[in-house]
Prior knowledge:
Layout: H1 9-32, E1 36-39, H2 44-49, E2 63-67, H3 76-80, E3 84-90, E4 95-102
Antiparallel strand pairs: 1-2, 2-4, 3-4
Bound molecules: zinc ion.
The site of zinc ion (ZN) has 5 residues, from strand 2.
Amino acid sequence: MSPIILIPPILVLLLWGTTRLKSLAAVKAAQQDGWIVTGGWRSPARNSVVGGHPQSKHMIGLAWDFRLAGPAENLRKYFSAEKLLVRIVPEKDHVHVQVQGRA
Ligand SMILES: [Zn+2]
């Protein structure tokens, strides 16, 4: 049986907030290099309409979509510069990037 660890909500909020700010800095750096952001935060209703994953990180502000402006993997450096681990998913007409955690 694994122990249940309770994290105070204020800590969750602080972790999310700092991760969100670092993510925004990474996105800004990517934009300065010519990457165009085509998607960011979306409401659960909007997520449903566009057929997003039910647990999509777009709904918590930790996923972005970029128009292809080069090899998808090139996006990783902006996030690792902010000490963030990301999952990069090349889609048909865009690249989905979501924050997995902190390096
Ligand atoms: Zn996406």
